[in-house]
Amino acid sequence: MKDEWLYSSASFVIYEIHVNVTMKRLDMELTKTLPIFPSMDLSNNQFCGKIQEDVGQLISLQMLNFSHNFIGPIPALFGNLVALESLDLSSNKLSGRIPSEMTKLTFLEVLNLPNNNLVGPIPHGYQFDTFDNDSYSGNLGLCGLPLSKQCVNHEGPNRLHHWWWNMKVLKYPSFGKL
């Protein structure tokens, strides 16, 4: 089997794979052409609507630029894009949280999420611990490192503890020694 490179451009590569097969004493060479799209730049296309979940199936992508296009949440299936090295989702109207599944993107070197409507804590782990403030600027609802805005946990165990403690105090008020 030999691989042969046929054509390449900035975002499109074609390979031909040749396989020699002998069947019934007949030698044949089989050829298959494989298109490979390592990068996809669909920025500034005036797309409307949400990013399709199917994008999460493009596991060979290395660069994805969807800037200036979409609304809605970042699909959790982006965590499947394990070969991704660069992701630009800047200047959209994306909302909701950054999916924690995206921390699986261990090859990610460039993350651009500025100027969206993202909220909540920034996920931690692997490459996400290497990005700076510029990756998240213009998302006033985001919190946590590397931003200086700390997250306030309104739904965690501390609030439940305070609620339970307040109920006990109201139900059994202390009057000192009687």
TrEMBL record:
Its membrane topology: Single-pass type I membrane protein
UniProt keyword Membrane, yes or no: yes
Annotated keywords: Cell membrane, Glycoprotein, Leucine-rich repeat, Membrane, Receptor, Repeat, Transmembrane, Transmembrane helix
Subcellular location, principal: membrane
Subcellular location per the Swiss-Prot or TrEMBL entry: Cell membrane
Transmembrane regions: none
SUPFAM superfamilies in alphabetical order: L domain-like
Keyword Repeat attributed: yes
Gene3D superfamilies named in the record: Ribonuclease Inhibitor
Protein family according to the UniProt entry: Belongs to the RLP family.
Official protein name in the record: Receptor-like protein 9DC3
Native species: Gossypium hirsutum
Organism phylogeny: Eukaryota, Viridiplantae, Streptophyta, Embryophyta, Tracheophyta
